[in-house]
Write a structure and sequence with these properties.
Elements: H1 14-27, E1 39-44, E2 50-54, H2 67-77, E3 87-92, H3 102-111, E4 117-122, E5 127-131, H4 132-135, H5 142-145
Parallel strand pairs: 3-4
Antiparallel strand pairs: 1-2, 1-3, 4-5
The structure holds 2'-deoxyuridine and zinc ion.
Residues 66, 68, 100-101, 103-104 line the site of zinc ion.
């Protein structure tokens, strides 16, 4: 399964490198007084625009928003159509490339094409790529809901 691929050692393709650089930049703006774990994300839209996100924590913990969801919700709020996105990069200071949490995987399934690449990285430059669908096998999605 692609999620278990070893970290890629080759160079990230230029377009994805650029997106990852934007995620690294967004990571600096993380609001993380509780975990001190900064995460950045950058979402590419169909027009070539990039929507950055960082994690935003809360003293009550559960209102915390991950970097991935910040980027996605920001792009939707700016008028971009659901499932029109082309790629998302996410980065944290992890040994292996960071992987989105379960909540973000569900939101990715909702708002992105199932074959959209998720470029996962760390601050050492390791990276790997999985599609949205690969990250959440057997997902409950709108397709099932609307059959009811
Ligand atoms: O993919 C991830 C994983 C974690 N976090 C955030 C949530 C919380 O603020 C902190 C620690 O879990 O990192 C993200 O933003 N994205
Ligand atoms: Zn998450």
């Amino acid at each position: 399964m692609s999620e278990n691929f070893e970290n890629q050692k080759q160079t990230l393709p230029d377009n994805y490198r650029h997106l990852m650089d934007r995620a690294i930049e967004a990571r600096k703006r993380a609001y993380v007084p509780y975990s001190h774990f900064q995460v950045g994300a950058a979402l590419l839209d169909a027009e070539g625009g990039v929507h950055a996100g960082c994690n935003v924590e809360n003293a009550a913990y559960s209102p915390t928003n991950c970097a991935e969801r910040t980027a996605l919700y920001r792009a939707i709020a700016d008028g971009h159509e659901a499932r029109s996105f082309e790629a998302i990069a996410v980065v944290g200071e992890t040994d292996d490339p960071i992987t989105p949490c379960g909540v973000c995987r569900q939101v990715l399934i909702e708002l992105c094409p199932p074959d959209m690449p998720v470029i996962m990285g760390n601050m050492k430059g390791d990276w790997r790529i999985s599609t949205v669908a690969e990250l959440l096998p057997g997902a409950f999605s709108s397709a099932q809901l609307h059959k009811a």
